[in-house]
Structures are given as C-alpha cells and as structure tokens.
# Entry
Amino acid sequence: MEREELSAQFLISGFRVFGEAMRLHDARMQQILPVPINVIEYVESDYQDQIASPSHCSHCNDTQGLCRHGTYGRWISWCLETVRILVARFLCRKCGRTVSCLPDWALSYRRVNVHTTERYLEGERADPEISHWVIHLRSYQKRIDSFAPTLVRSVNTGLGVPPSKPGQPLWPWIKKAYGTLQSAARQLVSTFRITLFGRYRCHQPCGFDKPHSAGMTGG
# Structure
C-alpha cells in the first residue's frame, strides 16, 4: 500500500512540474526587433546586452516599462554553419509575462535565417548554402503553402488584393507588400500578430486562448 501511495504522489508531483513548465512556456511573449548588424557581429558584440527595453508589453500592452530579465539561447544558420545567439528578454511588471526581442534576421521557430529562406522562395537552388539547408527550406515552403489560406483570411486585403486562386504562390503577394522577407516577418507580427508559418501564442495579446500552431521547435 505504501508503495502505491508513493507512486501516486510521485505521479501527481510530475503532473504539477509539467503544468508549471507549460504555464511558464505560455508566459513567454516575443517581439521582432530590427537589428542593423549580421549574425556574427551580433554575437561578437554581445548585442543582446545593448537592446533597450521594449516600449510596451506584447501581452497586456502596458507602457510603464519592462525590466531586463536575462537571455535565452537559440540556434540560427550562418552560411553553412549553425550559430548560437542569445536573445534579450524583459519582464513586464504588470502582467508578469516575459517579452523577448528576436532579431529580424531570425524567423520565429525556424533555424534557417531570413535571407537564405528568401533566396529559396525566390527560386535559387544551385547555391551551396541553399543546397546545404534544402531539407529545412523545403519544409518551410510546405508549411507556408499549407498555412496560406489561413494567412490570407486573417490579413484579408490588408496587404492589397490577395491571390485569387487556391494554390497560387503566396510569396509574390507578400513581396509586393513588404519588399523583403525580413520586413514581412517583422511587420506581419507587429501588425497582424501572425507569421507566414502559423499563428503563435507568443505573439498574441491578452485573451488569446487558441492552441499553439504546429511546427514550434524553439523561438
């Protein structure tokens, strides 16, 4: 009997730890930050420590100021290599959410950088860098294509007349509106709280209770 009670207590404790981990995960918010230097320069200069506090909280929109709350690490492609960067994180004093500032050459939950991804969407295939990351890039294209109907419905005519036929490539429409994928990734989040790949909880305001989009592998 004692063994069964200990097993039950251990199981309950495990569920509590898991629940707390999920609560903390849901407390993370993300803003896309324009960064004027490349990946290597960012790392070498410890640029994450130079980032100013965001003007508002992405969750509750409070403007009373956010305090610095450390960093977290994530990986991003650079040429044929993968580089670990640190992302600045801030804490909202009002709602208790953390707000991270992701450099705009990094796509949310995607390892390959925005410039390489854009070149793939433009049709480049022969370049060694494209070939090196082609498995990832193909999966990105599939995800963009599958999420396209939802993105078009969400944005509607906010980016001009959307593709009229199902299955039409989405990138030409996005490019016409924003010019570059880097600008598109940043402005889709700031204006519509959506990405080319999905709608993620870390970009949503207070009251958003839909489940996480598929394909989340790290901010």
Q: What stands out?
A: Residues 27-203 form one domain. The radius of gyration is 20 Å.
